[in-house]
Amino acid sequence: MNGPTVVDSVTALRAQVRDWRRAGLRVAMVPTMGALHEGHVSLVRIALERAERCVVSIFVNPTQFAPTEDLDKYPRQLARDLDRLRDAGAHLAFTPRVSEMYPAGFATKISVGGPSGGLETDFRPSFFDGVATVVAKLFMQAAPDCAVFGEKDYQQLCVVRRLCRDLDLPVEIVGAPTVRDAHGLAMSSRNAYLGEAEIEIARKLNVILRQTAEELATGADETKATGDAAKALIEAGFQKVDYVTARQAMTLAPWQRDRNGRLLAAAWLGTTRLIDNVEILPG
Amino acid sequence: MNGPTVVDSVTALRAQVRDWRRAGLRVAMVPTMGALHEGHVSLVRIALERAERCVVSIFVNPTQFAPTEDLDKYPRQLARDLDRLRDAGAHLAFTPRVSEMYPAGFATKISVGGPSGGLETDFRPSFFDGVATVVAKLFMQAAPDCAVFGEKDYQQLCVVRRLCRDLDLPVEIVGAPTVRDAHGLAMSSRNAYLGEAEIEIARKLNVILRQTAEELATGADETKATGDAAKALIEAGFQKVDYVTARQAMTLAPWQRDRNGRLLAAAWLGTTRLIDNVEILPG
User: Fold this and answer.
1) Are residues B136 and B196 in the same domain?
2) Which chain A residues have a beta carbon less than 8 Å from that of B118?
3) I want to staple B168 with a disulfide (CB 3.0 to 4.6 A). Which of A31, A140, A264, B138 is the partner?
């Protein structure tokens, strides 16, 4: 089986998508930063359930990294990524250079309020501006019918949904369940930074979140339950907890016990920051 | 001759444009805030030189008015506007309510840097955020091939061009020459606020700008020439001058004598704020 066609210019991307569209084919997009793992593969599979063609963008977007963050060491492994995309059945890999996405004179920023409030934004203030701007650009470049985003980055999924509704972007946003290892650890490109002992600790994140979500669903006090979860993460070996917070599932407004909720967390293992989230059933 | 079809929902707008597109017709858009005058009519005529169908949006966009500005008194006259559009040959008028453009939960803002710096932004700090956001939305809603904007709002034209380039919006932006009365007064919906004596004064704005641009093109000192122009406006009867500034024609970066330039001004007549601009030829 052939691997995906690789293009690095917007012109070539548009030409291919236009040809597909003229042939009556639906086009799905999976935006990624590369370092592809089973989670990304599942996004491509879901994309191909909804469209005949799948474009995967691989672009480590500098505008969503703060100067102190891991832009330079973020894993880049294009050959391996293309192998994975071939196996997953993706048709086109769009691998633009930074200068193709942000040419000289670039001066535009999209800010999404609402679901971007708090959580990641408290610790990465410009992160969602970077995400919203690059996602809008990718959608304008590729003009997909739909795009698939993982629930692993749950707040990002909510922000992208809000972005598309607010700017009337004609792209259906599909959320995809988080892929986990046998111990429930969410697949993440940043897991590559972890040693074996750290992986053991990292696996406790989802266990503690699931247990806390269950407690919240069955009547536990919100402040006590999330505070206990943060303590449990430290006891499990995490060095620092950025947040463990319950929110409403769609708007990320403050949690209400009688509605669908989401429990979200971010915590540090050494110099690696992990995030995860789980459903809270309405009580 | 029939007037334009009037739709107030995005759904109806998209359905009409989709039908045209299926029929192989090119679609142009003219975004307006209504209170249409000869300047707008010229935009529609230019649109129809470039496309078989013309959509005109009429939407007094609240997000580009500051709380102190004239949102409530901005002239609204839909029946007259539709007469003008019929005469101009526009095919569709899109007249959304505020709730159609900004439904509950709306939370997204587009900020364009670069050409938005200074000039209008010094006096209307949120103006171009409002313009950029609504223009992006209108383009996503109507999906036109091209859109026509008047040079009267010259900084706006530069900001919209930058917006489209930066976000890869697949819309060609066409700038249209300012329509003026026999005395050179630029057509503007806000001229309706002016009494007869004020109109006489307003007509001096373009005269003073043309004269100053000529002086700049033939070697005058920039600071002196623009300062003299501001003084001349006050002497002519304007109560206050917000700015008279020379800039580079495309980027609106600081003026350079050997490049195409633009001389831009904003000044107050009573409670009415007028803007205008003229070309500066390279020296």
Assistant:
1) no
2) none
3) A140
B222 shares a domain with B139: no
**Spatial distance between the Cα atoms of B76 and B187, rounded to a whole number of angstroms:** 16
In the block, tokens 């006050």 appear at: B234
Give B53-88 pLDDT, tens digit per residue.
999 999 999 999 999 998 999 999 999 999 999 999
**Order of strands across the sheet with A272-280?**
A240-248, A261-269, A272-280
CB crowding A35-58: b at 16 or more within 10 Å, else e: bbbebbbbbbbbbbebbebbbbbb
* Nearest chain B alpha carbon to A115: B107
Task: Give yes or no: B40 in active site.
Answer: yes
Q: How far is B141 from chain A (nearest CA, A)?
A: 6
Q: Write the pLDDT tens digit of every residue in B17-60.
A: 999 999 999 999 999 999 999 999 999 999 999 999 999 999 99
Q: Which residue has the tokens 């690789």?
A: A6
- Describe the crossing of helices B154-167 and B127-142 by its angle, rounded to 10 degrees: 60
Best interface-test mutation with A: which of B9, B100, B110 has the largest number of A CBs within 10 A? B110
- Residue B87 and residue B146 in one domain: yes
Among candidates B136, B140, B166 on the partner chain, residue whose Cβ is nearest the Cβ of A107:
B166
Please give the ipTM for the structure prediction: 0.95
Q: Say which CATH number the domain at B249 has.
A: 3.30.1300.10
How many independent structural domains does chain A possess?
A: 2
Q: Is the CB of residue A252 less than 8 Å from the CB of residue A262? A: yes
CATH of the domain at B70: 3.40.50.620
CB A169 within 8 A of CB A136: yes
CB–CB of B42/B176 below 8 Å? yes
